[in-house]
Amino acid sequence: MLLAFQLTYARMEGMNSLMSILPYIQIVLSVLLVATILMQKSEAGVGGSFGGSDNFNAGFHTRRGFELKLFYFTIALFILFVISSLLPVVLK
Known about the structure:
This protein has helices at 2-39, 46-49, 66-91. It is an all-alpha fold. It has a domain at 23-39 and 60-92. Helix 1 packs antiparallel against helix 3.
């Protein structure tokens, strides 16, 4: 009985420390996410967004090299940010 109480108390103490650093983790993740989104090359210019582009293949672009790795890193950051945002709801 005492061991179960100690394990429960240790688990709650660990969650409290996680909840105290979670806002800082979210700030770092959000800054990195914004930076990686802004680093990606945009193929659609102002004219293309209003239908002024006459290039038929303007929307199709194959990512290669660093651009592909940056794309996957952005997706991974997004998933980590969503998990860190839903973590307080799930743990309560």
